[in-house]
Every structure is written in structure tokens, then in C-alpha cells.
Amino acid sequence: MIPLFVKNFLLDNSRKYILAFISSFSIGALIGAIPHTYKFIENYKMERLIKKEIKLQLKKKEEKCKDKNSDYAKFVDIGFPKTAISKFNVCMQEK
């Protein structure tokens, strides 16, 4: 059997140091998570930048397909909107 004073000593110390244990564990977990958090933030920024770049390229392509010398503009001026839309779609699908 465990002597009574040893049992009381263990209970008192466990209650006393539980806050220190919890705080040490939390700090260790946070420090360990810093590299993963940094990597996540960098990936998120890169994805946003790629999406903006794709959106800008799409807008430039749309402007190119709707300029004055395009088939789209010619068919709109003549009065064939359905044909103009189909020409615009073909132009947008080209690489």
C-alpha cells in the first residue's frame, strides 16, 4: 500500500502543476503548428494570385474577341446577334 503522506503529496503536486502542464502543452502545440500555418497562408496567397491572373487573362481575351476588327463586332454591326455570339464563343474557346 502507498503511505498516506505520499498519496497526499502526489495529489497536491498534481493539482498544483496541472496548470503548468496544460500551458506547456498548449505552447508546444502552438510552436509546432507555426510552420504548417505559414505554409497554409503561403498556399492561400498563391491560389488567390493565380485566380486573379486567370481572371485578368480571361478579361484580356474577351476584349480581344470583342474589338473592332473581330468577327463578333462585324456580325453585331451587320445585325446578326446570334451569329456574333457564336463567333464570340468560338473565339473565347481558342487558345
What does the model show?
About 85% of the residues lie in helices and about 0% in strands. The chain starts with a helix and ends with a helix. The chain is built from three helices and no strands. Helix 2 packs antiparallel against helix 3. The model has no long low-confidence stretch (mean pLDDT about 85). The chain has one domain. The protein has about 100 residues and is an all-alpha fold.
Q: Identify low-pLDDT runs.
A: none
- What fraction of the residues are assigned to beta strands by DSSP? under 5%
The count of domains is 1
Count of helical segments?
Answer: 3
Biggest sheet architecture: none
List the secondary-structure elements in sequence, H or E. Answer: HHH
Helix content: over 70%
Terminal CA distance reads: 83 Å
Radius of gyration: 33 Å
The secondary-structure class comes to: mainly alpha
Mean pLDDT: 87
Choose one word for the global shape. Answer: rod-shaped
Number of strands: 0
Keyphrases for this structure?
95 residues, mainly alpha, 87% helix, 3 helices
Short overview:
The protein is an all-alpha fold and 95 residues long. 87% of the residues lie in helices and 0% in strands.
Question: Can you lay out the helices and strands and say which pair or pack?
Answer:
Elements: H1 4-65, H2 71-78, H3 81-93
Helix pairs in contact: 2-3
